[in-house]
Specification:
CATH topology of the largest domain: Ubiquitin-like (UB roll)
Largest sheet: 5 strands, mixed
Number of helices: 5
Bound molecules: FE2/S2 (inorganic) cluster
Structural class: alpha+beta
Number of domains: 2
CATH class of the largest domain: Alpha Beta
CATH superfamily of the largest domain: Beta-grasp domain
Shape: globular
Order of helices and strands: EEHEEEHHHH
Distance between the termini: 49 Å
Oligomer: single chain
Strand content: 15-25%
CATH architecture of the largest domain: Roll
Number of strands: 5
């Protein structure tokens, strides 16, 4: 076992884990952050997306040890009570989800998009979200919500 200190959602959290523990295992299984979801396990679906220093990454493909010394954000790091983050408000308003399995990863990717490309066009949004799959096929509603969040941020 190795001991890691992960900076998650603004706090240092100690993790004792095997050397090859993945970031999703450390976040979900050790730290109990259940918004980080496993889908494919091979970097394709985006369900396990977290932000590392503000950039979306697949936590299923990242060793926990590689994340030490970086800022990690999971959905638990966004507000859980009103006032919610404008992205959360937009997804609620437009019902940008059905089962919501994909939603934590998508919300975090959209957060990175707003920070990275505040004037993103629809094509740029689709390109940015290409790594986040929604098996329910809620893409039309997701696009509506992202447009709303971009507009809200520009106000
Ligand atoms: S579970 Fe990580 S990309 Fe699918
Ligand atoms: S809302 Fe069900 S997978 Fe996206």
């Amino acid at each position: 076992m190795i001991h890691l200190t992960l900076h998650v959602n603004g706090e240092d959290r100690g993790v004792d884990a095997p050397p090859l523990c993945t970031l999703i295992e450390a976040l979900r299984d050790v730290l109990g952050l259940q918004s980080v979801r496993e889908g494919c396990g091979i970097g394709v679906c985006g369900a396990c997306t977290v932000l590392l220093d503000g950039h979306p990454i697949s936590s299923c493909l990242t060793l926990a040890a590689m994340a030490e010394g970086h800022d990690i954000l999971t959905l638990e790091g966004l507000p859980t009570l009103p006032p919610l983050h404008p992205i959360q408000e937009a997804f609620i308003k437009h019902a940008g989800f059905q089962c919501s399995y994909c939603t934590p990863g998508i919300l975090l990717t959209v957060k990175a998009l707003l920070d990275d490309r505040p004037n993103a066009t629809d094509d740029e949004v689709r390109e940015y979200l290409a790594g986040n799959l929604c098996r329910c096929g809620s893409y039309v509603k997701i696009m509506d919500a992202v447009r709303e969040a971009l507009t809200a941020q520009r106000r």
